[in-house]
Design goal:
Helices cover about 40% and strands about 10% of the residues. The protein is an alpha/beta fold. A six-stranded mixed sheet has the order 1-3-2-4-5-6, sandwiched between helices. A two-stranded antiparallel sheet has the order 7-8. It has one domain: Rossmann fold, CATH 3.40.50.1110. The longest helix has 23 residues. α5 links the parallel β4 and β5. The chain is globular, with a radius of gyration of 21 Å.
Length: about 300
């Protein structure tokens, strides 16, 4: 049977729209209600979906550099990398360690939507609390001087706190962590509003590797809200205490990730690209809920 050129073209266009629509639906930002529904149902996922995006083989490459150019080189504390509405006079600064980098893509989109530049500078392994590491201490002092000079509308801090029991140069107790973090926020508040993106709960292992072992045991690769392993416990209490003491703003991503526990898959998305960092495709889906938290803080 011969197929006319017109029918063939119509079929190909329809196929392209179908494929594009599916990809777009998976990549589009989620509203609050839709996100809550997906997170609540994620704990019932038992098998890796056939429509998983990114695939297990792609997850390790689902990193911030796929969305923002040169983002890995934004380590100069005296010169911020600028994203978002780059010609705007308004400025939001994002700084911290690799978790600041992790949140940079959706925050760049938020800044763009709100008409602000996003200035980014980050240093691996350098949390916002006080540490006995000269390179980190020097970096933060220079960043804080840059912030004081530029007086942004908002400073957003993000840090990894899980695994600190293995880091002798970091404060081990919640009290010490909270005091160091609150002290920095109070200093920054002399020139800007300050918000802290609370740490995200780590997975027990890299989700992609774990899921590949047995794709029909998804929840085995998930995590409880609080890990029984001290090496995988965050400084959540310390971060909350510091925010209260400094009268800063806390932004809690936990409801965007976990229900009664934290599933490695939400909907058809792998949530983490490694044990402690969220996949960029997933954090981009959080752009709308993140914007709802940031917008009131920079209202002109």
């Amino acid at each position: 049977m011969r197929i006319s050129r017109g029918i063939l073209c119509l079929f190909l266009v329809s196929l392209w729209i179908s494929i594009s629509g599916n990809a777009g639906a998976n990549a589009s930002p989620l509203g609050q209600v839709e996100l809550q529904t997906l997170v609540a149902s994620s704990v019932a996922i038992t098998s890796v979906p056939s429509t998983l995006s990114p695939t297990l083989g792609e997850v390790s490459r689902d990193v911030p550099s796929t969305k923002l150019s040169n983002v890995g080189a934004c380590g100069n504390p005296l010169k911020l990398c600028i994203y978002g509405a780059v010609k705007s006079k308004g400025l939001i600064v994002l700084t911290g360690d690799s978790h600041a980098l992790m949140w940079a893509p959706p925050l760049a989109a938020v800044a763009q939507a709100l008409g602000f530049r996003l200035g980014l500078t980050w240093l691996p392994g350098c949390p916002s609390t006080t540490v006995t590491q000269p390179a980190c201490t020097s970096f933060k002092a220079k960043v804080d001087a840059t912030i004081a000079a530029q007086r942004p509308s908002l400073v957003i801090l993000a840090e990894r706190t899980a695994g600190v029991a293995a880091q002798s140069r970091w404060p081990d107790s919640n009290v010490d962590w909270a005091q160091g973090l609150a002290g920095r926020m109070l200093r920054l508040e002399k020139s800007s509003k300050v918000a802290l993106l609370y740490d995200t709960p780590p997975m027990p292992a890299s989700p992609a590797a774990c899921l590949a072992i047995d794709p029909n045991q998804v929840q085995r690769c998930g995590a409880p809200l609080v890990s029984p392993n001290p090496l995988l416990q965050t400084k959540s209490q310390a971060e909350h205490d510091a925010v209260r003491f400094a009268h800063a703003t806390g932004i809690d991503p936990l409801p965007w990730l976990c229900a009664t526990r934290c599933s490695p898959i939400i909907g058809t998305s792998v949530v983490y690209y490694d044990q402690t960092h969220l996949a960029t495709s997933w954090v981009m889906r959080l752009t709308s809920v993140l914007q709802a938290k940031v917008a009131p803080l920079v209202k002109r």
